[in-house]
Amino acid sequence: MSPDRSATVTTTVDGRTLTLSNLDKVLFPSSGFTKGELIDYYVRVAPAMLAHVGDRPLTMKRFPNGVEGSSFFEKHAPKHAPEWIRQVTVPSTSDGGGAVGYAVVDDLPALVWAANLAAIEFHVPLWHVGRRRTLPGPPDHMVFDLDPGSGTSIVECATVARYIADILTRRGLESRAKTSGSKGLQLYVPLSGRPTWGKVREDALGIATTLERDHPELVVSNWRKSLRVSKVLIDWSQNHPAKTTVAAYSVRARPEPTVSTPVTWDEVEQCHELGDPDRLTFTTADVLERIERHGDLFADI
Known about the structure:
Layout: E1 8-13, E2 16-21, E3 26-28, E4 33-34, H1 35-53, E5 57-62, E6 72-74, E7 86-90, E8 100-104, H2 108-116, E9 119-124, E10 141-148, H3 154-170, E11 176-179, E12 185-190, H4 197-214, E13 219-220, E14 232-235, E15 245-246, E16 262-263, H5 265-274, H6 284-294
Parallel strand pairs: 13-14
Antiparallel strand pairs: 1-2, 3-4, 5-6, 5-8, 5-9, 7-8, 9-15, 10-12, 10-14, 11-12, 11-16
């Protein structure tokens, strides 16, 4: 789908009628990347991306006036959402909180609808809906979100990722890496059997504190900013049913339209060895080329 520069376009996507607006609005001023180009990217990446957002309650981060303007997270499905957008009601995990009616992006028309809302970023939880009567469901993955403190970059995150992967391998667990699309790196560990949130959270914390003890010059597990200078935070707290992580192939609200991109362990190793953060920085154009060349590196999880 090529971006149309007219103000408003009515189109049909897989049998659904959609009205797309403000396609020529620039969302990324540094590169001139427009809303039409954002929608076009999501259409083209959909065959890979839908597997990672489908059947999961969606939190959108919307930027009506582009990445340099104000933004907001939207959990509740908008009242003006088309009737064909799937919605799921999830009880709030906070005391006194009401239930939240989320949108679920299961197909291409829903993905285009969300992108047309200037939803640059797509965030999903670590569980899926399925046919469960009780939500949220159990975790599908354990996740480590590696966040570089001041004085560090994704290069140091690559080093820490290797430490985590070594521990997981010794436990008989595989892990996959993806960039956050911003500054950091994320590790996903597929879970089998009947994992509980408490056990997964405890295991993630244990690995984080072990590495903090073994590599105190590089690793921290505490969010306090004063402790994070020149270190990488291992955010183990993401392993919670109420938390979300940025979805694979989601664009991020950076100066350039960078993407949360699955990567190989060889690429992580090269970033570590060469000390080059650009080795793990990918734009929308890069990602579409990578998928054409490698397929979806997260397909097996």
